[in-house]
Write a structure and sequence with these properties.
Helices cover 80% and strands 0% of the residues. By secondary structure, the protein is an all-alpha fold. It has 2 domains: 159 residues, no CATH class; 189 residues, Up-down Bundle (I/LWEQ domain), CATH 1.20.1410. InterPro entries: GCIP-like (IPR026907). Keywords: Signal.
Length: 371
Amino acid sequence: MAQQFSVIISTTLTLLEQFQATLASPTTATATAQGTQPQTPSKDTDTEAAANALPLLSNSAAALRAQVTKLSLLAITAPFTHSAVSTVLRACNESVLPSLVTAALLVTPAGYTKAFYSEVLVLTKRALVEFATLVKGVKGIADKKDSAKKEDPKKKEEGISKAEKDGVTVAVVRGVVGFVMRRVEQWRDLVRDAVEELEDWDPEEDDEFFDELMGEDKDGGSDSDDEDGDEEDTAALQEQKKSTLRFLKPVAQVYPAILTYRLKNAGDKPLSSAAGIAKLESLMINLQSIPDQVDEAAGALYESNWDKAAYHLKQTQKHAAQAVNLVATPWAGAESADGEQQSSDKFTVWSKTWLKVMDEVSKPIDAAASG
């Protein structure tokens, strides 16, 4: 049994290396997956592949997640059963992993946009890397168990150490937290882009463009009252732009702060309890909502609709504050240097300051939203 188990483990690790190499040069591999040569692609085949790619990707990812859960539980629960672990690995080798990689290869830039294509490749490669780490951890546990059994066949099998258990658990969790981090980075970039675009926007230039479009002649004796009104409107827009930027800059700071202090070195704590999982999911929902609200606010400002812009800015503030408050204190189980349960840290202090800053910069927006 031990020899057969060793062969299956080795096969799994070899397959994972080959699949990672395949994803490193996806163009040729995609043609192979579709059953065509790169020089003579079939339009019908491409269309069919595009239609099947996402369902296959979703199903294979779900199947891999289920197998990872089984494998981790089998590895950390005594007695260690070689046959049960082999069954899981065999299923991964024969169907789950090939299906996942095939699905990733069937997602093409032409069919799904370059951004989505790149995202699928990155996430699939990361899943393979994390799964390889888990399999190596399982192999280490199996080797230790086999060695102990050879030394004393009659001795009762002992449970694995906390460090070994944590190694397996963290390998599972890291994939999830890594996925969350990548999403948070994307939403951070969207907010940054919106702020940069707003900084470059000049309301006065927009007015001149609109006048030219409507065929108005500024030198043709336009009414002085209209000119005064235009100047007042432009001045108001400039002030609203200034208030919006002052408001959005601390909002943009939420993403790097959460990445650094709550996700980067979180380990297995976010997924160590149902409450932690719920908090992580709620955190993602709020952080994902912010870029959409920022875009709506900017669009309304470009249209000179300050009331609408203020509404979306207040929605932005609500989601940002909820995200910050969700993780204001460390994850459950986090310990300080002296081994005691942490109730606060640098981010906790930062969050209190951030909330005060937001209260201050939101005053002009509050006045418009309540008006």
